[in-house]
Amino acid sequence: MTIDQTMLLILSTIIFPGLFFIISLALFTQYMVRKISARYQNRMGPSYVGAFGVLQPFYDFWKLLRVKETVKTRFSMVKTAELFFLMGLTFSIGALVFLPLSPFRVCSEFDVLIFFYMASVIPFISTVMASMAMPGPYTSIGISRMLSIATIAEPAFFASIIIPVYLTTRGGDVLFMSLSGYVNVPRTWLNPLYVVIMLLCFIAYIVSLQAKVMYQPFNIPEAEQEIIAGFETEFSGPLLALFRLLHDVELAISLLLGVYIFLGGPLPFRHLSIGGVLLLIVKYVVLVIVITLVKNVMGRYRIDQALIQLFKYSLIPAIISSILVSIV
Asked: Contact 168/259 with Cβ under 8 angstroms?
C-alpha cells in the first residue's frame, strides 16, 4: 500500500465516511426522528440547543458521557460493557469502507457478506454482551426478548439485503454479490420480472429494520411500562451514552445501505457531484420519514404478537422473494 493509499484509508476511517461523519449523521438522524415524531404527536420536539434544536442529540450524548455518573452494583462489569460497546462501534465504522460512498473503497466479490457481519451481527452481539455484563432481573427479560425477535428479524434483514444485491450483480459488469451493483438498481426496478421481488424485499427490509432498532411496534425489549427499560435498565452515564450512540450509528448505516441497494444511491448523478450529493440526502431523508411514520402510527405489540407480525411481514416476504428469484 502506497503512502497516498494509506492516507486515503485514514481519511476514510476517521473523517469521511468514518468516525466523525457517521457519528454526526447518526446524531442528526436521531434529531430527525425525534422532530418528525414530535410533529406527529403535536409536540415541539428538540428546540433549544442549536438552530431549531439540531444540536440537542449531541448535547444529550455529551451530558451522559461527561456529566452523569455510572450507577453500578456489586455484580456490574462496567469496563467489560464499555469494551463491547466500543467493539460494536469499531466494527460498524470499519464496515463503511465497503460502501460506495467511501473514498477508499474495499470492493470484492461477496463484500456484502463482510459488510453485514461487521455492521449488523457484531453490533447486535456487542449490545447483548454489554447488557449481560450489567446483570439484573429486568436486563435478563429484555435480553431474552431481544434474542427472540432477532431469530426472525436478522434472517429477514439479511435476505432483504442479499437478494437485491444478487439481482443487481448476476451476469452484469460488476463484481458478483458486491455493493458495487447499486449502479444496476434502476435497471432492476424497471425489469417486470424483478420489480415484485424488489418490492417484497423492501417491505421485509423496512419491517425487519424497525425490529432491529427496536422502534414501535417492536420496542418490546425496552417496554418501560412492563420491565422499566429492559436490557438497558442497568445502563447509565457513559454506558447509556455509548449504547445510544451505537444504536444510532447502526440505524444510520442500515439506512445508507438501503439507499444504495433499493434507491440506487446518487443515481442518475455521479458520486460527489452536486446533484448526486443532494439526491443522496433526499433519498436518505425519505427512508428516515418512512421508518418514523411506521414508528408513530403503530402501538407496541406483545412479544408473541411481535413474532407473528415479524414472521408475516418480514420473513415471509423474504422467503417468497427467494423462491421467485430461483424461479425467475
From this structure: no
Closest CA to 149 of 39, 238, 88, 231: 231
| Cis, bond preceding 268 (omega within 30 deg of 0) | yes
Rounded distance between C-alpha atoms, residue 97 and residue 18, angstroms: 8
The candidate with the shortest Cα–Cα distance to 181, out of 290, 88, 278, 261, is 261
Q: Are 12 and 18 in contact (CB under 8 A)?
A: yes
Cα 270 to chain centroid, rounded: 24
Q: Where are the domains of the chain?
A: 3-327
Backbone angles phi, psi at 292, to 5 degrees: -70, -35
Q: Locate cell 427512508: which residue?
A: 287
The whole-angstrom separation of Cα 75 and Cα 16 is 39
| 188 contacts 168 by C-beta, under 8 angstroms | yes
Task: Return d(Cα 161, Cα 164) in angstroms, integer.
Answer: 6
- Separation between Cα atoms, residue 63 and residue 278, nearest integer Å: 32
Of the pLDDT bands very low, low, confident and very high (cuts 50, 70, 90), residue 60 is very high
As a whole number of angstroms, the distance between CA 154 and CA 209 comes to: 9
Q: Which residues contact 144 (CB under 8 A, 6 or more apart)?
A: none
- Residue 1: what pLDDT? 66
| pLDDT given at position 38 | 92
Q: What is the pLDDT of residues 168-193, one digit of tens each?
A: 998 667 888 899 889 999 999 999 98
